[in-house]
UniProtKB/TrEMBL annotation:
<dbReference type="InterPro" id="IPR036188">
    <property type="entry name" value="FAD/NAD-bd_sf"/>
</dbReference>
<protein>
    <submittedName>
        <fullName>Salicylyl-CoA 5-hydroxylase</fullName>
    </submittedName>
</protein>
<dbReference type="GO" id="GO:0050661">
    <property type="term" value="F:NADP binding"/>
</dbReference>
<dbReference type="InterPro" id="IPR001155">
    <property type="entry name" value="OxRdtase_FMN_N"/>
</dbReference>
<dbReference type="InterPro" id="IPR044152">
    <property type="entry name" value="YqjM-like"/>
</dbReference>
<dbReference type="GO" id="GO:0010181">
    <property type="term" value="F:FMN binding"/>
</dbReference>
<dbReference type="InterPro" id="IPR002938">
    <property type="entry name" value="FAD-bd"/>
</dbReference>
<dbReference type="Pfam" id="PF00724">
    <property type="entry name" value="Oxidored_FMN"/>
</dbReference>
<feature type="domain" description="FAD-binding">
    <location>
        <begin position="2"/>
        <end position="319"/>
    </location>
</feature>
<feature type="region of interest" description="Disordered">
    <location>
        <begin position="731"/>
        <end position="755"/>
    </location>
</feature>
<feature type="domain" description="NADH:flavin oxidoreductase/NADH oxidase N-terminal">
    <location>
        <begin position="383"/>
        <end position="716"/>
    </location>
</feature>
<dbReference type="GO" id="GO:0003959">
    <property type="term" value="F:NADPH dehydrogenase activity"/>
</dbReference>
<dbReference type="GO" id="GO:0071949">
    <property type="term" value="F:FAD binding"/>
</dbReference>
<dbReference type="InterPro" id="IPR013785">
    <property type="entry name" value="Aldolase_TIM"/>
</dbReference>
<dbReference type="Pfam" id="PF01494">
    <property type="entry name" value="FAD_binding_3"/>
</dbReference>
């Protein structure tokens, strides 16, 4: 096999060494446009996991790396003159030139052909002459550009400028330092990579960079200014450059990683923000996977398919974590008002890969100090601390999220709702929410939706609230009121979500006469008189909800239903007083809120669920959502339930663990209103992390409560918590300890006896 590798960075060189070592008969050639010692940046951080893979695949390289690694365990975070240290993290770093030298030496020893200061031939030429072409030519990959119609790359440029520099002394920890300057917030990321040197990255928002004049000064003056901004971290010393320039980070994602016998590797295929230190790590792991797949598969096409199948999910997960970290730093000013220790915890858990429980294992002393400052009594996880909304005190921070069950008859909740909501109330959550309860027959989503537009329905709901208050004392139950708008008259979810009914349809109304998707019914635009009628339907339903005994009322202004349809510019095309500017689009939802608040008991809280983004071009943005939340808070909303999307059918959500939480975080800090976070929050560790970091006040979980009605009780048992934040119903107390299982720790055989 003849292998051509374009790019002599760590990924390309390591791939070359592995491919040659695994099969010495291979002819492997590397082209690198720069000289052997020319590189960008200074230090490289590798995880223990990556090093384990290197040790297994090539002990020679591993041993050479070991000789030069600088290792440390601590992270220091300095904010407003206060430094907090968290230990137990485990890092290993070395100089980038040293890493390249080790890999170049290994390649030469194995017989790899290295061509430095040489442009690689055109990919078409290499693909014709070689059996395999590995494109490891970096973030600006010409190979990727050549076959862009096949790889279909998406390159996203982000909002911060950064410069990669070095200091001539070693930090004793991974260091984050925040500087609040007259021009805006700037941050330093630093770590040691040799016994006498550290990498220093200075980063700031584009507008701060311009306000500080960095766009107008020479490179040497930029570097001098950076050193003066962080004198304490740098001990008054200067910074050094390696042809460093200010740049913006670009996230690279490719739909496809191979074309014929050409395959992408490392930054050519994907990038992950430097704040989680994954660029070189991913490239090295790509090389390991590619080499393994070539050994395991019968031919090159099969190997490349297996490589892509193996690596894509891993890379996507890393990119989600990197994106969360990147956006946290982009929005750093949101968190500056936090107490320094909570700020440090927030920073450490920003990517969602380090969590409350994980950090407790690494540094229990630090984590317990954050908990004490937050107000956690001894032995109390953050999720089991109480929270007050108006006259209602929730005993813990867990909410059973509203989930449509489509199981009512003529809008009347029956035995199913009693068991469904009753079992989840017994399961320990602080607040159990109903599904969206419709304010009129025409406002239903499906024929199976529950309502509060008749006295019979209210009586049926009273049966549910009486059960919750009587059998699960301490658990609150809330009702979510809404109107389907243009998303009504559809089949039950399991029969065809958002699909129109085959017969028995009812007419739809909406802010504007726009169908939800092709084939959907076109709604009528609401007249002023009809708006008044619907507002009165909401107030009548709220009055019945109060009589039915609900503790909290939530107004559903999300997910493309009627009130949400007024808020989004994609669904509100009106030209009257209820359309156009954001203030006019808010007018009707606020009128409904005010009318409901007027009849809802003063001591009981009201929340509002919003879609904080439409995930579609031209729709509601995160900035818009802050304005929407601020308006509802000004009108008396006690909390904002922050969801996203489901407003237009052509949405493109960015799914991932806790993916909607940053929207709640932003609203909480910019508006100063309590928030409920939702969206793929699936573990009690996530709940503890989000609450202790100050990103949310309450966490609403849906699917986990479908999987386990007693999710909160089990979360308490798994954490060994038995305090007032959760209570096992007396008949269930015998199950408050995890059942025993069969042994799995049998001694392994030590001797093999011959026959």
């Amino acid at each position: 096999m003849r292998v051509a590798i374009i790019g002599g960075g760590p990924g390309g060189l390591y791939a070359a060494a592995l491919l040659k070592r695994l099969d010495p008969t291979r002819e492997v050639t590397v082209w690198e446009r720069n000289a052997p010692d020319v590189t960008f940046g200074f230090g490289v951080v590798l995880s223990d996991e990556t090093l384990g893979g290197i040790e297994h695949a090539d002990p020679v390289v591993y041993e050479a790396l070991q000789e030069h690694f600088v290792r440390w365990d601590d992270i220091d975070i300095t904010h407003r003159g206060v430094r907090h240290r968290s230990g137990g993290h485990g890092f290993a770093a070395l100089g980038r030139r040293r890493l390249l030298g080790i890999l170049q030496e290994r390649c030469r020893a194995l017989g790899v052909g290295l061509k430095f200061s040489a442009e690689a031939p055109h990919p078409d030429v290499l693909a014709a002459e070689y059996d395999l072409v590995v494109a490891a030519d970096g973030v600006h990959s010409t190979t990727r550009d050549t076959y862009a119609d096949v790889f279909t790359p998406q390159v996203t440029t982000h909002r911060c400028r950064y410069i990669w520099l070095a200091a001539d002394f070693p930090f004793d920890a991974f260091r984050f330092e925040i500087a609040e300057t007259e021009h805006g917030v700037m941050q330093l990321h630093g770590y040691p990579y040799a016994s006498d040197a550290s990498t220093v990255i200075v980063e700031m928002r584009e507008e701060v960079w311009k306000a500080a004049g960095f766009d107008e000064v020479a490179p040497h003056e930029s570097i001098e200014r950076c050193a003066k901004i962080f004198p304490d971290a740098l001990r008054g010393r200067s910074l050094h450059s390696n042809n460093s320039t200010w740049t913006t980070f670009r996230t690279v994602v490719n739909a496809c990683w191979s074309h014929g016998n050409v395959v992408l590797l490392g930054d050519a295929a994907h990038t992950a923000h430097f704040s989680i230190g994954s660029g070189t790590k991913l490239a090295v792991e790509d090389a390991l996977a590619l080499a393994a797949c070539l050994q395991e598969q019968p031919d090159v096409p099969s190997a490349l398919a297996a490589y892509e199948e193996e690596r894509k999910p891993v890379v996507a997960s890393t990119q989600r974590a990197a994106r969360a970290s990147l956006e946290w730093f982009e929005n750093l000013p949101l968190h500056l008002g936090q107490p320094p220790r909570q700020f440090a915890f927030n920073l450490l858990t920003r990517s969602r890969r380090v969590t409350h429980d994980n950090l407790r294992l690494r540094d229990a002393h630090f984590t317990e100090a954050v908990e004490r400052e937050f107000g956690c009594p001894p032995g109390t996880p953050p999720m089991f601390t109480p929270f007050r909304l108006r006259g209602l005190t929730l005993r813990n921070r867990v909410v059973v999220s509203p989930m449509d069950m489509y199981s009512a008859t003529d809008g009347v909740p029956g035995d199913f709702h009693l068991v469904h909501l009753g079992s989840r109330a017994l399961g320990g959550a602080g607040l159990v929410m109903t599904e969206m309860v419709c304010v009129s027959e025409e406002g239903r989503i499906t024929p199976g939706c529950a309502g509060l537009y008749t006295g019979r329905q209210a009586e049926a709901w009273r049966r549910v609230t009486d059960f919750v208050h009587g059998q699960a004392p301490g658990t609150a139950i809330g009702v979510q009121l809404g109107h389907s708008g243009r998303k009504g008259s559809t089949k039950l979810m399991w029969e065809g979500m958002d699909e129109p009914l085959p017969h028995g349809n009812w007419p739809l109304v909406a802010a504007s006469p726009l169908p939800y998707k092709p084939g959907s019914q076109t709604p009528r635009q609401l007249s002023r008189a009809q708006l008044t009628d619907i507002r009165e339907q909401f107030t009548a339903a709220a009055w019945r909800a109060a009589r039915a005994g609900f503790d909290l009322l939530e107004l559903h202004c999300a997910h493309g239903y009627l009130l949400s349809g007024f808020l989004s510019p994609l669904t509100n095309r009106r030209t009257d007083a209820y359309g156009g500017s954001p203030e006019r689009r808010l007018r009707f939802p606020l009128e409904v809120f005010d009318a409901v608040r007027a009849v809802w008991p003063a001591e009981r809280p009201m929340t509002v669920r919003i879609s904080a983004t439409d995930w579609a071009e031209g729709g509601t943005t995160a900035e818009d959502a802050v304005g929407v939340a601020r308006a509802f808070a000004a009108h008396g909303a006690d909390a904002i339930d922050v969801s996203t999307g489901q407003v237009v059918a052509e949405e493109r959500p960015e799914f991932g663990r806790s993916y909607q939480t940053p929207f709640a975080d932003r609203i909480r800090h910019e508006v100063g209103v309590p928030v409920i976070a939702v969206g793929a929050i699936s573990s009690w560790d996530d709940v503890n992390s989000l609450i202790l970091a100050g990103r949310t006040d309450l966490c609403a979980l849906g699917r986990p409560h479908l999987y386990d009605p007693h999710w909160t009780l089990h979360a308490a048992a798994e954490q060994g918590y038995e305090g007032p934040g959760v209570a096992w119903p007396a008949p269930y107390r015998a199950g408050s300890r995890r059942p025993q299982t069969g042994r799995t720790d049998a001694p392994k055989p030590r001797l093999t006896l011959g026959g």
